[in-house]
Every structure is written in structure tokens, then in C-alpha cells.
Write a structure and sequence with these properties.
The protein has 257 residues and is α/β, with parallel strands linked by helices. It has eleven helices and ten strands. The protein has a six-stranded mixed sheet with strand order 6-7-8-3-9-10, with helices on both faces. The chain has a four-stranded antiparallel sheet with strand order 2-1-4-5, with helices on one face. α8 links the parallel β7 and β8. α5 packs across α7 and α7 packs parallel to α8. The protein is globular and about 50 Å long. The protein starts with 14 loop residues before the first strand and ends in a 7-residue tail after the last helix.
């Protein structure tokens, strides 16, 4: 197996997992995976269900605690700081958004600034909502059940970036959306990352989405990293038969984008 991890020796590293093993209920979800992201990089984890993508991603905000290995954020071991402080410094967007249904949009988006004791969490939320394409004057006082699926995911994205974190973790954040809405929210995310320079780790089943939103793709299988690189390099020289088969299934037409 070929991880193709870039050589970051002596360089700043925003996210780093070293020989991480995760065991969940007697099953090895992550099996010795190592991954490093430079500041401002965007990497997509792809692979079949059960490949270990989400488990690896959640190690960085300690939603999953590894059985072995080391995980660092900004050069510091994630176990060296209180978990609540760690999570307030990392943006996180789950698949279904995770909005609190009894809170307004502005309060949902301002949740982390409020926890951090910022002087104006509603103001932080309004800026974040505007960045993801939602007018806070129109949407701020609405509740999540009054929003479309795409609007809810935009609010979830706004909540994740309202405190201006340096790192953003996204766990299949666009998978439940219809094709048109998904493309719109993907475009909002891409513009946001370009504007803020956030380091992003994205879990997705969609290789086209991975190519569109990430600088590099990491293919996982059975808890291990099979290959890392651009979609072009993966297609040109797949490191394993699994990578080749995955690309053939996901991108059957050479010209597909």
C-alpha cells in the first residue's frame, strides 16, 4: 500500500495522525493510519462504508479516542488540552448538520462564539451566515425546520466557521442534498475556504466532490490508507487493484467531471 504522504519534515503541520489505531466494539476501524496536512490544505478521505474515514476524522476532535498512535492539531497532542477547548477551536460539520431545532438560525450559528465568551456572538454569527450565502436579516430569526436542506447545511457551515477556526472537519456534509443544492453548497464551501485559508479534512463517498473541493484525495480501505494524491495521479498510476477498481466504479467515463 502507498500512502504518498508529503514530506513535511521541518514544516508547519496543521493536522497529523501517526500510526493511529482505533478499535470500536472489537472491530479495528482504523489500522495504523498516518496522515499529515499542511496549513491551508484540503484533503478528502474517500472509500467504501466501513473504510475508517469517519473514525480517523473524529480522532482530531476526540470524538473518537485512538487505541494506539498519536494525533496532533497545530503541533500539539489532542490529549494535552481539555476536550471542550479542543472542540471549540476546530470547526466541525456533521452529515445532518446537527442544528439545535429549538434555537434560531442566528443562535445556532453563534453557538461556538458564545461558548468562547466572545463579546458579540450574534455579530460573529451574522458575519458567518453572510459568508455562506445566507442573509442574516432574512434568516437569522428562523428556526431550522423552516429551512430547506441546503439552507440548514449552510447554517451548519456558518456555525463551524463563526469563531474563525484554523481547522475544519467535514463528515459527508453534502451527501443528503439533491444534486442542484449540493453543487450550490459545495461552491459556497470552496469560496469560503479560498477566502479564509482554512485547513480542511473532508469525508466523502463522491470522488467528483473530492476532486472539486480538495487538493488531494486519500483512499482508505479496511482502516488503512491505500493511496494519496490528486485524482489525476490516482487514475494514472493506481497503487493497488482496489484503488483502480474504485476509480473504475466511481468514474466510469474518462471525461466525467
Amino acid at each position: 500500500m502507498v500512502a504518498d504522504t508529503p514530506d513535511l519534515a521541518g514544516k508547519p503541520v496543521a493536522l497529523e495522525a501517526s500510526d493511529v489505531v482505533v478499535r470500536l466494539g472489537g472491530t479495528t476501524a482504523v489500522d495504523g493510519a498516518s496522515l499529515a496536512l499542511a496549513p491551508g490544505a484540503a484533503v478528502a478521505l474517500v472509500g467504501e462504508s466501513g473504510a475508517g474515514k469517519t473514525s480517523l476524522l473524529r480522532c482530531f476532535n476526540r470524538m473518537v479516542v485512538p487505541s494506539a498512535g498519536r494525533v496532533r492539531v497545530g503541533g500539539s497532542d489532542v490529549g494535552d488540552r481539555p476536550v471542550e477547548l479542543l472542540r471549540r477551536q476546530i470547526g466541525y460539520v456533521p452529515q445532518q448538520g446537527g442544528l439545535l431545532p429549538h434555537w434560531t438560525v442566528i443562535r445556532n450559528a453563534g453557538f461556538v462564539p458564545m461558548l468562547l465568551g466572545r463579546p458579540d456572538p450574534d455579530g460573529d454569527a451574522a458575519v458567518a451566515l453572510d459568508r455562506v450565502g445566507l442573509d442574516p436579516a432574512l434568516f437569522g430569526n428562523r428556526f431550522p425546520d423552516a429551512l430547506s436542506g441546503g439552507q440548514r447545511q449552510r447554517v451548519a457551515l456558518a456555525r463551524a466557521i463563526a469563531a474563525r477556526p484554523g481547522v475544519l472537519l467535514l463528515d459527508e456534509p453534502f451527501g443528503a442534498l439533491d444534486a442542484i443544492t449540493r453543487a450550490e453548497v459545495q461552491a459556497a464551501f470552496a469560496a469560503l475556504r479560498a477566502e479564509l485559508g482554512i485547513t480542511a479534512l473532508l469525508v466523502t463517498h463522491d470522488l467528483v466532490e473530492a476532486e472539486r473541493l480538495a487538493d488531494e484525495i486519500v483512499v482508505m480501505r479496511n482502516g488503512r490508507i491505500e493511496q494519496r494524491g490528486s485524482l489525476e495521479s490516482l487514475r494514472a498510476t493506481p497503487a493497488t487493484s482496489y484503488v483502480a477498481a474504485l476509480l473504475d466504479r466511481a468514474l466510469p467515463f474518462e471525461g466525467r467531471r
